[in-house]
Design goal:
The structure is a single chain. With 485 residues, this protein is α/β, with parallel strands linked by helices. The chain has 19 helices and twelve strands. The longest helix has 34 residues. The protein is globular and about 80 Å long. The protein starts with 8 loop residues before the first strand and ends in an 18-residue tail after the last strand. It binds 2-acetamido-2-deoxy-beta-D-glucopyranose (NAG) (4 copies). One 2-acetamido-2-deoxy-beta-D-glucopyranose binds next to loops. The site of one 2-acetamido-2-deoxy-beta-D-glucopyranose (NAG) has 5 residues, from loops. Its EC number is 1.1.1.44.
């Protein structure tokens, strides 16, 4: 081995996430070799942020690979998409069998699936690693979700688990599963983040418009919630946002245009849930709510012509409402996570991943945006019963929903009465009531399909046999049987 091989890992991409991960690895005693396509960035980094550390630099991909100990580990933190493929192509000629490429960007899981297969075919190992926690997390402890070639994990584990956030004394990083599992789990994490944020926004609107509370008062309510079962990073920052005044002493949040942007990971989760036939309704509503918010001009015009309650205030006991709203948020959150884990279970079947659900809950418990006390309860549920059908069957969550549902139903019906949209809170309740129904009206749906399309149906008293009924008593079939619904 060349004496030049000094570094434990190489990292490509010196934007803020990349720089912070390098500094984090350095803090934990690993020697990192840094590279950026614009090589002046490497020198600048070494002379500034990395000054006085053990970090080394490279001015070419070839030099980077030469400076790495075997098996070589090269981590990419570059823009998702074609840049990842281009870098992989440029690194591969400088690698040998058993070397590892890690993609730490926000890649879409089908790309990770493909790249894992392509690189494994060349005798290399590939890992798609979800990284959450933003800049701060990257620097002091992110949540890391690595998946791909399992043989890569033993060499990565000491580095990744050292730099990851810790929850209950354990690293928020563990092996997720094969091929695209790491990026899939990161995608679902982001989808759940969309859902959590949407529910919080609904609570905010109910408190602001339905109860007439000031932003300062709403901040106090979130502060109280943050001390109980809703304790989480997102509730905490919402409290701080409510309390943040602009230079004129008015709450800054009230001055922000109400159209939400999105980068696509929530949408990917919703699309995957449709592909897989899993009712991940809350995340779906959260994505659509952002879409609806983006129709600002159209909404302004509609607000002038469409009838409905406007500016109505809740007339009852406001303290009681706030208590109930806390229950509604908690219940909707349980449903959202139960749906998210249902999706993971189906994806594991579809893609043959061995997912460790308790481990995933632990990876999300610290470091990342959805970190919360609640994820500890999810971890416990999976530790008790790793094969549990749904979180809703876990005694803890079953009981929690039983307790919370008085408030949940109250808030949902009040929102409807007051004309305040609460799509996440209400869709969660509809899902819950549907999930606990042994009989849904889909019998009628099957009858309709058979009536107009001769799609056939099963009888309750003769399952497994498909029959068609001559519903009209007229000659011939009513419509073409090629019409699919
Ligand atoms: C190089 O560094 C810049 C920031 O200084 C970053 O925006 C860019 O993504 C990096 N690119 C690559 C390919 O290394
Ligand atoms: C923000 O302004 C409100 C009055 O509009 C005031 O009650 C509150 O204390 C201010 N908050 C902070 C953090 O200064
Ligand atoms: C449906 O029933 C009517 C009346 O009995 C009959 O004339 C017709 O042939 C039937 N159609 C089919 C497709 O069996
Ligand atoms: C009506 O539809 C059934 C079911 O698809 C089919 O078996 C039958 O041959 C059709 N009858 C006629 C008259 O087209």
């Amino acid at each position: 081995m060349s004496t030049e091989a000094v570094a434990d890992i190489g990292l490509i991409g010196l934007a803020v996430m990349g720089q912070n991960l390098i500094l984090n690895m350095n803090d934990h005693g690993f020697v990192v070799c840094a590279f950026n396509r614009t090589v002046s960035k490497v020198d600048h980094f070494l002379e500034n942020e990395a000054k006085g550390t053990n970090i080394v630099g490279a001015h070419s991909v070839e030099e980077l690979c030469r400076k790495l100990k075997r098996p070589r580990k090269v981590m990419l933190l570059v823009k998702a998409g074609s840049a990842v493929d281009a870098f992989i192509d440029s690194i591969v000629p400088h690698l040998e069998k058993g070397d590892i490429i890690i993609d730490g960007g926000n890649s879409h899981f089908p790309d990770t699936l493909r790249r894992t297969k392509e690189l494994e075919a060349k005798g290399l190992l590939f890992v798609g690693c979800g990284v959450s926690g933003g800049e701060e997390g990257a620097r002091y402890g992110p949540s890391l979700m690595p998946g791909g070639s399992p043989a890569a994990w033993p060499s990565l584990k000491p580095i990744f688990q050292a730099i990851a956030a810790k929850a209950d004394g354990q690293p928020c990083c563990d092996w997720v599963g094969e091929t695209g599992a790491g990026h899939y789990v990161k995608m679902v994490h982001n989808g759940i983040e969309y859902g959590d944020m949407q529910m919080i926004c609904e609570a905010y609107q109910l408190l602001r418009d339905g109860l007439g509370y000031s932003h300062d008062e709403i901040g106090d309510i979130f502060d109280t919630w943050n001390k109980g079962e809703l304790n989480s990073f997102l509730i905490e920052i919402t409290r701080d946002i409510m309390k943040f005044n602009d230079t004129d002493g008015q709450p800054l949040v009230a001055k922000i245009l109400d159209t939400a942007g999105q980068k696509g990971t929530g949408k990917w989760t919703a699309i995957s849930s449709l592909d897989m036939g899993v009712p991940v309704t809350l995340i779906g509503e959260a994505v659509y709510s952002r879409c609806l918010s983006a129709l600002k001009d159209e909404r302004v015009r509609a607000s002038k012509v469409l009838d409905g309650p406007v500016g109505q205030k809740f007339q009852g006991d406001k303290k009681q409402f706030v208590y109930y709203l806390g229950q509604a948020l908690y219940a909707a959150k349980i449903i959202s996570y139960a749906q998210g884990f249902m999706l993971l279970r189906e994806a594991a079947k579809e893609y043959q991943w061995n997912l460790n659900y308790g481990g995933i809950a632990l990876m999300w418990k610290g470091g990342c945006i959805i970190r919360s006390a609640f994820l500890g309860d999810i971890k416990n549920a999976y530790v008790k019963d790793p094969k549990i059908e749904s979180l809703l069957f876990d005694p803890f969550f079953k009981e929690a929903l039983s307790t919370a549902q008085t408030g949940w139903r109250f808030v949902a019906s009040q929102a409807v009465q007051l004309g305040i949209p609460a799509p996440a809170i209400t869709t969660a309740l509809s899902f819950y009531d549907g999930y606990r129904s042994s009989h849904l009206p889909a019998n009628l749906l099957q009858a309709q399909r058979d009536y107009f399309g001769a799609h056939t149906y099963e009888r309750l008293d003769n399952r497994g046999t498909y029959v068609h009924t001559n519903w009209t008593g007229r000659g011939g079939n009513v419509s073409s049987s090629t019409y699919e619904v």
